[in-house]
Amino acid sequence: MTALQSSACIWPARLHHLRRDSTEPEQLARFYGQLLDDRVEALPNAQWLVQGHGRRLIVGNGAKGTVPYFAFAMRDAAQLASYAAALEHLGVAREPSPSPLFAEGAFAVTDPDGRRVVFGLPLRVSGIQSALAGRLQHFVCASVRVPGLLAFYRDILGARESDRVLENEDLAAVFLRSDPEHHSFATFRAPASRPDHHSYETGSWNAIRDWGDHMAKLRIPLWWGPGRHGPGNNLFFMIEDPDGHKVEFSAELELMTEEVVYRTWPHEPRTLNLWGTAWMRS
User: Which of the residues in the chain have pLDDT under 50?
Assistant: First the structure.
């Protein structure tokens, strides 16, 4: 039996929301509300919800810069139930969902870095408008155990590997997809495991321009970019939030069918940015 056959079937699932923690959660939530021009509201248990069309972020009270969980929306109740059964068959421990944004039946699993991954069906909301398009698209973390994360997300959870980056045959980074978009999760090698960034898909180069102009009005400097990544081939720029977590605005991320096999890239600046300078963080 191949790894693909022995894994659960996550396809298709789309990143729906994540939780960012901070020692000043309300302050951070209001930063994101201004950054994204989104609605900010208080939730129980000292949490805050920032939401716009196609994007939701929960901000909680906790260690600065951490991401305790991120959450995937499944296609329907039948897929969620079959996915839960498949994970049970594989011996994966399931936990109650920590997310207030998913309906009953949602659950979480814990990855090798101790971060929870939540699966469920979103509660219905209406009347959310956003001046600038930017759907939440992917989450990326740094890790001391990249091979272990690859084995967990690919061979257990069933994500498809899109690209890997090698340095002298060692795995420096890996990109995985849970639907046709090039990656919904990625990880790169680092001296310590930590969250790195999350990304919003803006749709086009002109939209990247509009988001850049929005940053200028807010006096938020671009931290990296604009540029074009090698893996994923997407246009991008990044900024930093007040806790040092990176936020990416991306456009035209590559689409891949479920069956496409991964490609290999060298660990060099051009892989990170086809246009020029790169942040060599692994």
Answer: 1-5
